[in-house]
Design a protein that fits this description.
Blueprint lengths: L10 E3 L2 H15 L11 E6 L5 E8 L5 E7 L5 H29 L7 H12 L8 E3 L1 H11 L1 E3 L6 E5 L14 H6 L5 E3 L11 E4 L6 E7 L7 E4 L4 E6 L2 H5 L2 E7 L4 E7 L1 H12 L6 H21 L3 H6 L7 H15 L4 H8 L3
Parallel strand pairs: 7-10, 10-12
Antiparallel strand pairs: 1-6, 2-3, 3-4, 5-7, 8-9, 9-10, 11-12, 13-14
Helix pairs in contact: 1-2, 4-8, 7-8, 7-10, 8-10, 8-11, 10-11
Length: about 350
């Protein structure tokens, strides 16, 4: 049983009724095929200049703009009417669960913002996560907190980190490249020119002064940061040391937003925590981000030690040899968060259990 009376605890467990509701919603989310990119919207009838009556889907996209897409026609044709009826049913189902999503958000579960949700929903619809693509970084951390049924200090980020360990196993090779997939969110993505203009871009941002962006990442075979082609996405990625450790095991989970929910692939929480500790020692000159890495790792370690004892110990046993030199210093930096408030987690992490 988690002790909720500790004033210095890094997390608070959600009430059981909320975790049951979350599990029900996740079961629904993981059964979805295509998801809405933006709000559920509505089915409307339109008539063009020649008098042709047809059905359209009207909704708000990831930038909050009202959009309209042709659905089927002519209105009255059995096939068009069936397509409209099917979409109306999907809209009804989503509108039924949206109040529950917002309830969980009010109670401290992590909800993605509209731009993040639209972007990741688009990648889901294109089969990126089913093919092995993985959401990492702070948005994955939020998903993992939700799955563990805990509430922790909020995080803020305008980054989406997408990674793949090996070539994505699409059932059918997509015709669109990554940037076109991102643009299907309704957000105007452009390539970010790298510092070295001789290298291809590995990052994409929202056009204009926005800081909202998506980074594509792959494991590096050593401690360098190479630019690696990702032909199945018609893109390039930045290679990161020790990323293969994080991506070795994954799970499908639910990303929630006020607009809806969709499946994403994320790392296991214990590997995420250990990898965060390793990465914290690689962020030279970026102490704020390093501190965030350590804190997020400690939150997950604290929760896992109580709900899944042994998970952290098992994850530590799998770290690559070249990462071990960073881990000892990283574990010492976690002492202040864990030793007094979460002794069991500290013992498991430090090997003193």
């Amino acid at each position: 049983m988690v002790d909720t009376n500790r004033p210095s605890s890094l997390f608070t467990p959600h009430r059981r009724a909320l975790t049951v509701l979350y599990a029900d919603l996740e079961s629904h989310a993981l059964q979805q095929g295509e998801v809405f990119i933006g709000t559920a919207g509505s089915v409307i009838e339109r008539t063009n200049a020649s008098g042709f009556r047809f059905y359209a889907h009207q909704f708000y996209d990831g930038e909050g703009k009202k959009r309209e897409r042709y659905l089927a026609g002519p209105a009255g044709d059995p096939k068009a009417d069936a397509a409209a009826a099917e979409l109306r049913e999907r809209i009804r189902e989503l509108k039924e669960i949206v109040p529950s999503l917002r309830l969980l958000g009010r109670e401290g579960f992590n909800l993605a913002d509209a731009r993040t949700y639209a972007t990741l929903a688009s990648l889901h619809n294109h089969g990126v996560f089913a093919a092995g693509g993985m959401l990492i970084g702070s948005h994955a951390y939020g998903v993992l907190l939700n799955r563990l049924g805990i509430r922790a200090a909020p995080y803020a980020t305008e980054d989406i980190d997408i990674a793949r360990r090996e070539a994505l196993a699409f059932e059918k090779q997509p015709e669109q490249g990554l940037i076109e997939m991102l643009k299907d969110s309704g957000i105007s993505f452009v390539e970010v020119p790298p510092l070295n203009r001789k290298k291809p871009p590995t990052s994409f941002k929202q056009r204009g002064r926005s800081r909202f962006h998506v980074d594509l990442l792959v494991p590096s075979p050593n401690e360098d940061f190479p630019v690696v082609p990702v032909p199945e996405l018609q893109a390039h990625a930045t290679g990161l040391p020790n990323l293969d450790y994080l991506l070795a095991e994954s799970q499908t989970a639910m990303l929630m937003a006020r607009e809806g929910c969709c499946p994403v692939r994320v790392p296991l929480p214990e590997r995420f925590a250990v990898h965060k500790l390793i990465v914290s020692r690689l962020r030279t000159g970026r102490e704020t981000k390093a501190d965030k890495d350590v804190f997020q790792a400690c939150v997950l370690c604290a929760a896992l030690a109580e709900s899944h004892p042994g998970a952290i110990e098992a994850a530590l046993a799998q770290i690559p040899r070249r990462a071990k030199k960073y881990l000892a210093l990283a574990i010492e930096s976690a002492r202040r968060f864990l030793e007094s408030a979460h002794g069991r987690a500290w013992e498991e992490l430090s090997g003193n259990g």
